[in-house]
Amino acid sequence: MKETTLKKIEKLKMELQNKGLDGVLIFHPDNRLYYSGFSGSNGCLLISLKHGEIFFADGRYYEQVQRESPHFKLNRLEVEDGKNVMLGFIRFMKKHNFNGKLGYEADALTVKQYHKLISDLPDVIFEPADELLSSQRIIKDPEEVEEIRKAVFYAETAFKQIEDKIKPGVSEREIGAELEYLMKIAGAKSASFESIVASGVNSSFPHARPSGKIIREGEPITVDWGAKTDKGYCSDMTRTFFAGKPDDEMLEIYRVVFKAQQAVLDSIGPEMTTGQADEIARKIITDAGYGEYFSHGLGHGLGIAIHESPTVKFGDNTVLKPGMVVTVEPGIYIPQKGGVRIEDLVLITNDGCEILTNLPKIAY
Ligand SMILES: [Mn+2]
Fold first, then answer.
1. How far is the centre of ligand 1, averaged over its atoms, from the C-alpha of 327 (Å)?
2. C-alpha 192 to ligand 1 mean position (Å)
3. Which residues sit opposite 138 in a β-bridge?
4. pLDDT digit string, tens, across residues 60-119
5. Which residues are bridge partners to 224 per DSSP?
6. 342 C-alpha to center of ligand 1: Å?
7. Ligand 1: distance of its center to the CA of 25 in Å?
8. pTM of the model
9. Containing H/E element for 199?
């Protein structure tokens, strides 16, 4: 991953220059992983036009930084700093009389950390760089797409092994636990998020947690799961099934969601805005009379984070570009009754999309 990581840093530096920034301070674990390849849990990065790439680490991670992030210069904390890597960063900035403009992640720093920064470094102008950083991650390079494919493979391999188990008499939690275990056995580092297994009335909560509830005859079961690779890339997909014969209304809802999702998969592509993609599904669901029950956006970007740019939602003007990877996941959720969601992962290509998830969907 080394060469592509260097390219990412070069691209970031060009953008820093365009925005009149002298560097950026990175604390967020996802951004840290993206630029450094570091898989540990503490440390911050300075990527600056003048001083290059510096990794501020505490003593638990010196060797790991040297091994995983050889393109960064390791800056070791003083013993009295404990694990507070920000102290190392502040010391470095003072030593070099850094007085330029520095980007920081408003989304990742605590209020306390931010106050410490601005009071200890009064000569530095701090500017939020969250959008700059997330826009850098929005287009996936071929290596990242390969990682996402691997994550899909782990998730689907696991699912195929438990598919037959999703039936009356089994608890949601049992299915969730087995899915996560089997994804690891298939090669995943972990699940990319806590799997959702929601049956019966629980399926009307779009983000239900698996409970001890036992699946009963005729109920809808929504399973939303994904895997994470060793390099940190995610997959995400959802299928809704029926345990036996569903009632007519749930069947009708399933067919509407299925049709809405298929319509998006058939037409999503470059130059379409994410709002237009959402509108394709929303129109079908609204025309069927269920508009108010499609209570979330159509989808989201995915990469190192399970949710990242672009957000695919109603009214959004972000233009889809080749190399973006987004989910397509319309749903209808009827309170006290149940819900249906179907989700696939797509790579936007030059002439449309490639669907990265392969598990068949049942056309009830
Ligand atoms: Mn999703």
1. 6
2. 10
3. none
4. 999 999 999 999 999 999 989 999 999 999 999 999 999 899 999 999 999 999 999 999
5. 196, 238
6. 10
7. 29
8. 0.94
9. strand 196-199
